Amino acid sequence: MMNDQAVFTAQLEMIAYPNITAHTETGAHLTIETNEKQRTDPAFWASVSAILKAKLWVPVSKRLHQLLDSDWLAVQTPAPQLRLG
């Protein structure tokens, strides 16, 4: 899991292109900013619309106020390799 201090858990409230408004578990409101690639990606907007409609909670970067594409999972480091023989 990611460092809990680096991520907001947010529920989307409204899409106001190019931004998305949401609220955190504590009720704080925030604006999720989209990047240039997301702004021109119809699949991204279809996904965000489905997330909004389903009222799902999503991870948002506290530093950048952007949706995380890796969900709440942290990048795993490879397990050490055993040397045989």
Task: Kindly describe this structure.
The structure is a single chain. By secondary structure, the chain is of the alpha+beta class. Helix content is 20%, strand content 31%. A four-stranded antiparallel sheet has the order 3-2-1-4.
Short description:
The protein is an alpha+beta fold and 85 residues long. It is 20% helix and 31% strand.
List keywords for this structure.
20% helix, 31% strand, 85 residues
What pattern of helices and strands is seen along the backbone?
EEEHHE
Give the overall pLDDT as a whole number: 83
The structure class reads alpha+beta
Strands of the largest sheet, in order across it? 3-2-1-4
Low-confidence stretches: none
Q: Proportion of β residues?
A: 25-35%
Major sheet: 4 strands, antiparallel
The proportion of residues forming helix, as a percent range, comes to 10-25%
Number of β-strand runs: 4
The tally of helices reads 2
Shape: extended
Question: From the alpha-carbon coordinates, what is the Rg to the nearest angstrom?
Answer: 16 Å
Q: Helix and strand layout, with pairings?
A:
Blueprint: E1 7-16, E2 19-24, E3 29-33, H1 36-39, H2 42-54, E4 57-61
Antiparallel strand pairs: 1-2, 1-4, 2-3
